[in-house]
Fold this protein.
Amino acid sequence: MKRIKNHIDELFKDIPHNHETEMVKQEIIENLEEKVFYLMEQGKEQEDAIHKAIVEFGDMEDLKKELGVKEPAKKSMAKLNLEFSIWGSGLIIAVFIFMNLYYTPHTIWAIYPIFAILWWPLSMYFVWSRKKWSE
Amino acid sequence: MVRSDIIRGHLDAIILRLISEKDRYGYEISQEISLRTNNRFQIKEATLYAVFQRLEKKDIIEAYYGDVSHGGKRKYYRITPLGKAYLSELVKEWSAVKEIIDLFMEGLE
């Protein structure tokens, strides 16, 4: 059974190591061992059974495509931009409201800069949602 | 043995059909495919696990660990409600495709 594990380790060697790929690897080894046991029950020698299981496994191209491509790095960037813009504009808006209420409580002027600043999170929201749609 | 690249586009449907009958694990599925097709089509294990990964990411199937076999714990797959809807779409699509291809293939030797 060591040969099955070695073979799969070899196939997985240029796939990034993480929890997900480790789980897939374990699953594949488990199922291949089961296949070997089944073939032996059918009367095959262990050597033959292992060989057959390995040959029939096929090539890794599809699996590599599923496991190799990692995209979360880019995706979280748009989200981070959006979060930063919301917090940033929130703080600036708070300052304007404070200044307005504290120094000139009878004239409302803070609404004008607030309106201008709101374009920042709005544009970030646009970038974020456009990214989400295109995925 | 049928050329596997023709069947390739329908692997989702084949695998979902088998999982929708009952929850199954990897080797069971590849065995069942060989059995039902009388060995005319055998799925490569590597391909099978790639399909599992893709379907699981799309929430079409979900995995859980079941009973212990010779080696370790078996990983079973079950179909989700989304998966059932997807499968019935695939069935409709296939019957449409079959009709179209039949238009050109029938009546020839």
Summary: The interface with chain A takes residues 25-27, 30-31, 42, 44-47, 49-51, 53-54, 57, 69-75 of chain B (CB under 8 Å). The mean pLDDT of chain B is 89.
